[in-house]
């Protein structure tokens, strides 16, 4: 019976880990398996912000539940959560109008936010350029995480302190229903048996179900990011999202002025070509993370995105960042890119192989913010427990 479980979760990233977490919270016997020695995909190669404010109304509910879950876990075990809030900085009247409209939407959703005047923005965010900022919108409840740290500490908490069984270095090569059970087999021949299997391993599920993958509408996004050297005594609190973020994030699609403002944007700019919006977040070591860009390819053509960093994109982002905040140094110590899968026509990819095997992936850029809340409701649905209202 040692290798029999109520739930086996395949994929040790943020989406899989929180599916396992909620299964355990439901009192189930759970095993989380990950193909590598430790998670190293999109979960660790992202910006590290939890921003329900940037999501549409549906996903904001999941994001707000995620905030609650993150803070509850942080109160028991340090997983690198810092509550310094999120600010959106408008650079012109159009962006300021979108902030006013978003604040009205969030007031009706009872989600706290505060408009900041130009002078308040300059007071709160040192180095912010006077010739850039016009106004701001601040969300005090939102948090940042350290993406290269958080998932490891979360799994340490679940394994060491909560007793969850976690198997690293367990590449799943076979997953098949056998009567009332599903057999999950690794490349080393180790077998697990589960009542339900939830597969949350990005686009890697193509190795298990190539036909399902081939018929999916998954695409992959490549994001470039950078990290400066330490900024010394300089302090920049929270997530700093700027004008291009206001023009990109889904939350603003619901604003009355959004469609008209987007129509007036130039189509041939480098910002559009590379999908750039400028973000700032200070890491715990005093450095500042800058980003990011977005390039897309079908998931079965991931090679089209290349495996190198495009230095023209990095140079463009640094020069644009300098127009917004005068940091003590823009010397870069590290550059990287992340890859995440997402759907072209829906907000997440879900496929039921049969009632015992569920594929859940393609959460895209919503992963860090939405996974904890979404997984809670999804596990209740998969196991047919009472309805959970978020």
Write structural notes for this entry.
The protein is α+β, with helices and mostly antiparallel strands. It has 2 domains: 201 residues, FAD/NAD(P)-binding domain (3-Layer(bba) Sandwich); 182 residues, D-Amino Acid Oxidase, Chain A, domain 2, CATH 3.30.9. Helices cover 30% and strands 26% of the residues. It is built from 11 helices and 19 strands. α1 crosses α11 and α2 packs across α11.
Quick overview:
The chain is an alpha+beta fold and 390 residues long. It is built from eleven helices and 19 strands.
Question: Which characteristics define this entry?
Answer:
19 strands; eight-stranded mixed beta sheet; 2 domains; 30% helix; D-Amino Acid Oxidase, Chain A, domain 2; FAD-dep_OxRdtase; FAD/NAD(P)-binding domain; nine-stranded mixed beta sheet; alpha+beta; 390 residues
Can you lay out the helices and strands and say which pair or pack?
Elements: E1 4-10, H1 14-25, E2 30-33, E3 49-50, H2 57-76, E4 86-90, H3 93-108, E5 114-116, H4 118-124, E6 135-139, E7 143-144, H5 147-161, E8 165-167, E9 172-178, E10 181-186, E11 191-199, H6 210-214, E12 218-228, E13 239-241, H7 243-246, H8 258-263, H9 270-274, E14 279-282, E15 288-291, E16 295-298, H10 311-322, E17 332-343, E18 349-354, E19 357-361, H11 367-382
Parallel strand pairs: 1-2, 1-11, 2-8, 4-13, 11-19
Antiparallel strand pairs: 3-7, 4-6, 5-6, 9-10, 10-11, 12-15, 12-16, 12-17, 13-14, 14-15, 18-19
Helix pairs in contact: 1-11, 2-11
